Structure formats: C-alpha cells, structure tokens
Task: structure prediction
Amino acid sequence: MTARRSSAPGARIASVADFESWAARQSPAELAEPFTYVVGADGLLRLAPRRSEHVACAGGAAVLGAGEITFVRETGRWAVGEVSNQSTGYCPDVTSWPAVARALDGIPLRRPAAFTHEVVFRRCPACAEHNIVREADFVCVFCGGELPEAWNVDDAGRSDGR
Result:
C-alpha cells in the first residue's frame, strides 16, 4: 500500500548547521513533540512534523530507517532525547537501528545507544495484514494466524535496516 503524499519531503539534515537552521524554524510547541523522521537510501536524516506520513517525508523513496524522534538541549547543544522505529508506512525492523545511528553520528548529534522504544512489525502470511507484535505474542490480530519470528515486511520500498 502506498501512503498518500500529503506534504513535501522532509528537511534534509546533513550537519549541525542544517539541524540548527531547521530547529530555529520550529515553534517551541513543535520542538516539545516528536518529529517524523526517515533515513534515506543516501544515509541522511530527513525530518518532518509529527503528523506527517513517513512515506511523504521520504518523498516516496525506499528508506534505511523510519520512526519518531525527539530532541533536547543538553549543555547548549542539541541531542536526541528519544527515538523509535514507529512507522506504519515502512514498518522498519528493529535492526534498522545501525542506519539511524550512522545518520545521527554523521551530523553529529548526541544520541541514545539504541531505540528508546522498539516496535516489532510482522506481516501475516495467512492474510497479508501488517501487525504490531506486543508482549512477544506472535499471533495476527486480524485472522489469528501465526506470525513469523523473523521480520518479513519486505514489500518494495520497505525498510529492513540494510
């Protein structure tokens, strides 16, 4: 399924100067909320308002990672407060973390050692619906079918962290 492109692609962030310029254009209320992010195939971070679709943030392209991210000021510098792989547009695996970490390190922005909130996505082999696995219960909420242990949301343009 392709998300409707409802907004312009996210702001490309390749350096601290890019990030600071982008952050200066955000209101204090916006900076207090998580943002939508993607890591493009080029390895660069792109940011958009929280209510943006991840596929729109990526300009419809395949990504290496996607989710939500918050930023905080620490000792006069910006840092990542929280970061997840929560994106129902791409359903990225938790193994996408290294690509996200490389993008943040390339700016560079101080970051956590891993996702602060991991979402486990699986596609049901029986009904093809996408599921969020909660509490290690690998059962499809739509049809009751068994979900695979390994990530399988591998449609074209989906993220697998590679």
About this structure: The two ends are 21 Å apart (CA to CA). DSSP finds four helices and seven strands in the chain.
